[in-house]
């Protein structure tokens, strides 16, 4: 029994280490070839999702109400997978909020899927004044992200979806103002 506990602890540590390596952006250049090949696999998976129809899913919002992604059909959607503990995620949130405020009347929305706990997410949303839809997923959010091409669970991970539900683009790492401007110019 003692051996099984140690083996389980080793699995937990290895899993946590893998998640830390893949979270919050691109791997550092000095990482090993295994991380680089996982990174390349995510890029291929993300590119393969472009042109596909969006995948519907249901997750709770901050009030605990189940929300179905299809309720935003007809809008140009930025679907963003993020976490409160992720520095690049925090950095892009004010840009998302400003862009949402400026364009929501034109049929544009941002749906942020937090890979996080409800309490931490609520505090973050309150502190940053986030007004666009925020859903909570934790493990479910990671699984949904994989369906959208984020095989290694990198955060932040963003998907652009047109009004007909077609995946137009995917972006691993922090979204810069130029990225968002380009998307809006081409599709809004």
Automatic annotation (TrEMBL):
<dbReference type="InterPro" id="IPR050553">
    <property type="entry name" value="Thioredoxin_ResA/DsbE_sf"/>
</dbReference>
<protein>
    <submittedName>
        <fullName>Alkyl hydroperoxide reductase</fullName>
    </submittedName>
</protein>
<dbReference type="GO" id="GO:0015036">
    <property type="term" value="F:disulfide oxidoreductase activity"/>
</dbReference>
<dbReference type="InterPro" id="IPR000866">
    <property type="entry name" value="AhpC/TSA"/>
</dbReference>
<dbReference type="Pfam" id="PF00578">
    <property type="entry name" value="AhpC-TSA"/>
</dbReference>
<dbReference type="InterPro" id="IPR013766">
    <property type="entry name" value="Thioredoxin_domain"/>
</dbReference>
<dbReference type="InterPro" id="IPR017937">
    <property type="entry name" value="Thioredoxin_CS"/>
</dbReference>
<dbReference type="GO" id="GO:0016209">
    <property type="term" value="F:antioxidant activity"/>
</dbReference>
<dbReference type="InterPro" id="IPR036249">
    <property type="entry name" value="Thioredoxin-like_sf"/>
</dbReference>
